[in-house]
Amino acid sequence: MQAGREDPADEVLVARVRGGDTVAADRLVRRHLPLAYTIALAVMGGHSDADDVCQDAMVRALEKIDECRSPSRFRFWFAQIVRNQARNALAKRRVRSGPPLEEVEEHPAPGHTGESAERGELRAALLAALERLTPVQREVVLLKDLEGWDHRTIAGALGVSEGMSRQHLFAARGTLRRALGPEALRDHTEGHRHG
Amino acid sequence: MDDGRLDLTPLKPDPERVDRAADAVLARARGMLAGRQRMQASVWHEIPGWGRPLLATAALAALLSIVALIRVHPAAHGELVATLSEDAGVPAPVAAWVDSDQPPDPATLINW
User: Fold this and answer.
1) CA-CA distance, A193 to B9, in Å (whole number)?
2) Considering only alpha carbons, which residue of chain B is nearest residue A148?
3) What ipTM does this complex have?
4) Residue pLDDT, tens place only, A90-139
5) pTM score, two decimals?
6) Which CATH class is domain A7-99?
7) Are A121 and A93 within 8 A, CB to CB?
8) What residues does each domain of chain A span?
9) CATH says A115-195 is which class?
10) B40–A187 CB contact, under 8 Å
11) What is the domain partition of chain B in residue ranges?
12) CB-based contact (8 Å) between B37 and chain A?
């Protein structure tokens, strides 16, 4: 992870946060919150409750930052906190027997109302397709295709082999392609052939 | 190279949503961060605070050492060595050799 003076590395920010530096905390939070949303989505299968989960996980990470033994690997440590937080939230929701995710996602949260209808449709289609994946397949495909992690990193974060990570990705992409159909696929794969 | 990559960017939370969440997190963490600042500041203020008593203790120790040296020094050197030797359980002849600063002759060693 390279970072210049303008963009301090995680270990620098973590050290400053340990001293109570609010500016460093701000940068650390804004840098890693998108990852929190990705992991919450992977574990929970939808955006419902994601805000609470991500915020709770980040606050917890800041509170427990002394326990981050490898500050240069903050994102992996934080990802684990998000994962645990999301699983707990999911378990609580199952206990409460709330509405299934598909129903929740049919009614976008207030924060989504300003988005374009097209993007909203795409997201709804993707969310529905993601529901067909297992949690680990969701996490692999989201970390790979949304966060750009490599298989070695994904394998390390999820505690699986690189081979298994590749298998999960292959299966996940296949399922998503079948679920989205050729029309949606054209939308979703254009511009990424250079990848 | 990864030709099978899917464009999942519509799943990314919009930046405004992330900003709102970040603001909420920082608002909740403000008290904790302020506490950390206070703790660090108190540590740095504590160190100079310890300087004065530390210096006073060192000065007292130096004074006591000087007084002890002055009281011990005038005593007869040989007497002191003998006393120390006796305390350490060293035999008197050996202590006498040490005190005389002369090596013992072989006959003395054989007879002893």
Assistant:
1) 15
2) B5
3) 0.76
4) 888 777 655 544 444 444 444 445 557 777 888 888 899 999 999 899 99
5) 0.66
6) mainly alpha
7) no
8) 7-99, 115-195
9) mainly alpha
10) no
11) 13-74, 75-112
12) yes
